[in-house]
Write a structure and sequence with these properties.
This protein has 397 residues and is of the alpha+beta class. It contains 6 helices and 21 strands. A hairpin with a 5-residue loop joins β17 and β18.
Length: 397
């Protein structure tokens, strides 16, 4: 019995020794594997407390600078449409023709009446001229001369009315040729050739819009408006208009540049916002009226901030943080307090003093204490570099 107990004890002791050796071997292997893992390649930017151009972004809608309704100003049958729908037209370009027959006849009639009245006026003048010496010599009554003079003055007034009637007839005749009142992009025709237009109302034939430059209306909160007014570094604030797109790889959208040229004089009672307007160049007519856009307003570049890309700031239960490059090229969690945020940058209100190297790539693979292989990309991915690439450095006036 004692020999069995001794044998069992020896077996248990051997198992313990083997297990201990196996655990030590595993720990050694883990340490060896940890030493063999190459450092994680990352990119970093060096942040500075510097003057950053501040742009505030709003949503807005575009509107043409001019919109004109082309209407029939005289009645008649529409005979011709002389434009291609959707094309650009020039001011004074002929667009439609309305039948002219009635208006030519009316013009001929007024001219004929004027000729008849002119003949009567010539006769009245001759009568006056003949009776003046007779009255002076007492050979004819003055009453007869006065009748001829009254007739002459009456006919002179009639001639003036005839001239006005001729001008009106010529004007009506000119209205039978409908021309573009402004240069711009023309819409479709709303009335087909052959229809009767202008009877009872001035029939709408088409519309023309002038969309170069283009307006973009947006509505900042009253508080934003006050901040812009207080901190703006230019009397005329720069603006950029861009179109959001979900087809970034296929559809390239250009940036439209201009200025803020209108601010309404009241706050909307329901929304607490103020209507403002940016006017931007649209030389290629690629920005269409009614488009949903983002309007970016430049406020100032005279204030200093510490800015980082918004994508590098993380959130957890402890708050906001970024990863910075620490001693021995190891990643370090740095707690920060967020400030103003835009599309291209996020202000660090507290937590960074300037000079820190903030990691901007391989972020999902990072954790505190990870060994990294850093590459400085401040010159291409730093905040000022990004703003320069996107042409958001304000121009000099």
């Amino acid at each position: 019995m004692k020999s069995r107990i001794c044998s069992l004890a020896l077996v248990l002791l051997a198992i313990t020794l083997l297990t201990g050796c196996s655990g030590e071997e595993k720990d050694a292997k883990k340490k060896q594997q940890a030493q063999e893992i190459p450092p994680l390649s990352v990119e970093f930017i060096t942040v500075q407390n510097e003057k950053i151009p501040i742009w505030i972004e709003y949503t807005g809608k575009t509107e043409a600078t001019k919109r004109v309704e082309v209407r029939a100003r005289v009645a008649g049958r529409l005979e011709k449409a002389l434009f291609t729908e959707g094309d650009l037209v020039e001011k004074g370009q002929k667009l439609f023709e309305i039948e002219k027959t009635a208006y030519l006849a009316a013009l001929d009639q007024t001219k004929a009446k004027m000729q008849r009245d002119q003949a009567s006026l010539d006769l009245a003048k001759a009568d006056v001229k003949r009776y003046v010496p007779l009255v002076e010599k007492g050979l004819a009554p003055r009453a007869t001369l006065e009748q001829y003079e009254a007739r002459k003055n009456e006919l002179m007034a009639t001639i003036k009315a005839d001239m006005a009637a001729i001008k009106e007839a010529e004007l009506n005749l000119s209205y039978t040729e409908v021309v573009a009142p402004i240069s711009g992009r023309i819409s479709r025709r709303y009335v087909d050739v052959g229809n009767i237009v202008g009877y009872g109302d001035k029939t709408l034939l088409t519309t023309i819009i002038d969309d170069d430059p283009m307006y973009a209306y947006f509505n900042p909160a009253e508080q934003d408006f006050q901040l812009m007014s207080q901190f703006k570094s230019k009397d005329r604030m720069e603006a950029r208009v861009r179109i959001p797109t979900a087809m970034k790889g296929m559809l390239k959208r250009e940036i439209y540049k201009g200025w803020i040229d209108f601010t309404d004089n009241r706050v909307d009672r329901l929304t607490g916002t103020i209507t403002m307007r940016a006017t931007v160049d649209n030389p290629n007519y690629s920005l269409l009226e009614g488009t949903f856009v983002y309007v970016e307003v430049f406020v100032t570049d005279q204030q200093q901030f510490i800015m980082v890309p918004p994508s590098v700031v993380f959130e957890d239960q402890r708050g906001s943080f970024v990863y910075t490059l620490g001693a021995e090229n190891k990643s370090v969690r740095t707690d920060v307090i967020r400030g103003f945020e835009g599309r291209n940058y996020l202000q660090i209100a507290n937590g960074l003093a300037g000079g820190e190297k903030v990691i901007v790539s391989a972020l999902p693979n990072l954790a505190p204490g990870i060994k990294v292989d850093p590459k400085d990309v401040t010159g291409s991915k730093g905040i000022m570099a990004v703003l320069k690439q996107q042409e958001m450095i304000p121009t000099e006036e």
